[in-house]
Amino acid sequence: MTALAYALPAAAALLLGVAGGFWWGRRSVAPAPAPQPDAGPTLAELLRRAFTSSGTGLAVLSRHGDVVMSNAQAVTLGVVAEGRVDPRAWVVCERVLRDGTVQAVDLSPLDHRGRRPEAVLATVRPLADGFTLVEAADTSEAVRLESTRRDFVANVSHELKTPVGAVALLAEAVLDAADDPVEVRRFSTKILNESTRLGNLVTELIALSRLTGAERLPELAEVDVDDVVREALARCRLSAESSDIEIVVDDDSGLQVDGDRTLLVTALSNLVENAIAYSPPHASVSVSRRLAGGVVEIAVTDRGIGIAPEHQQRVFERFFRVDPARSRATGGTGLGLAIVKHVLANHGGGVSLWSRPGTGSTFTMRLPAPAGSSGSPRDSAGPTAVPTAATTDLPDPAELAGRAGG
Ligand code: ADP
Question: Phi first, then psi: what are they for 338, rounded to 5°?
Answer without folding.
Answer: -65, -40
